[in-house]
Amino acid sequence: MLDKHVTPIEQVIALVDEICTANKLGYAVIGGIAATVHGSARTTIDVDLIVQTDISTLDVVYRAFTSEFVPVKQNPLEFFNQYFVLPVIHNTMKVKVDVSAALSGFEHTALKRAKRLPFGSVSAVFCSPEDLILFKLVANRERDLVDVKDIIARNKHLLDQSYLRTTAKQFAEVERSDVLDNLERFLR
User: Fold this and answer.
1) Tally of CA atoms within 13 A in the half-sphere of 38 that contains its CB
2) CA pair distance 111, 24, nearest whole angstrom
3) β-strand 27-30 against 115-119: which pairing, if any?
4) pLDDT tens digits along 63-89
5) Burial tier of 100 (Cβ tally within 10 Å: 0-12, 13-18, 19+)
6) Chain-wide mean pLDDT for the chain?
7) Distances, alpha carbon 102 to alpha carbons 1, 45, 87, 142, in Å
8) What CATH number labels 8-187?
């Protein structure tokens, strides 16, 4: 059991890891928590993750997470099947978790590249800094672009820039040239 000095976010991350391990679900923490692990100076109060699944097994992911978390949306399984994201909250720790189904080729690659890393007094599987940069460039919100700038500034010489550029070009092929344009701007 975790000691009482472990923060609610750390406890939830440990619980997510337990759920995914017990149910043999590949996963990776993305979002703000991953941004802090990879060098952003941001704070966040929720956990975002991608989980290896396919459309026919979304109910498995749903059951795994709703055994420990309370769904936030009305008709949560229907919502998950329609939008491929399951927003849940831990009943006592009040930490929100967005569980996203990893359905795209990019997300599958991100899961393969993910690594177990420490976060405070726990550890979990986190996406690589390169994949996090790409997730955040796709989201293209102001906070995400600040995270990208911070992550690149702290990791520039360690980043696989070839992978970043190659993958960003794939987003450009599906009408998201802003991903590549913003990446190049931040890498300068």
Assistant:
1) 32
2) 13
3) unpaired
4) 999 999 999 999 999 999 999 999 999
5) buried
6) 94
7) 30, 22, 15, 24
8) 3.30.460.40
What lies within 8 Å, CB to CB, of 98 at 6+ separation is 31, 46, 47, 48, 49, 85, 86, 87, 88
For residue 106, the one-letter residue type is F
Tokens of 116: 């177990």
What pLDDT digit, counting tens, does each position of 45-63 carry? 899 999 999 999 999 999 9
Residues 6 or more apart whose Cβ sits within 8 Å of residue 37: 29, 117, 119, 126
Task: Give percent above pLDDT 90 in the chain.
Answer: 88
Place 163 in a pLDDT band, splitting at 50, 70 and 90: very high
Are the beta carbons of 138 and 171 closer than 8 angstroms? Answer: yes
DSSP 8-state code for residue 55: G
- Helix spans in the chain (H): 8-22, 31-37, 58-66, 76-83, 105-113, 129-139, 142-155, 161-172, 177-187
d(CA 24, CA 55): 17
Q: Which two tokens stand for residue 129?
A: 């800094």
Rounded CA separation 73/36 (Å):
27
Give per-residue pLDDT as tens, 88-109. 999 999 999 999 999 999 999 9
Total-model pTM: 0.93
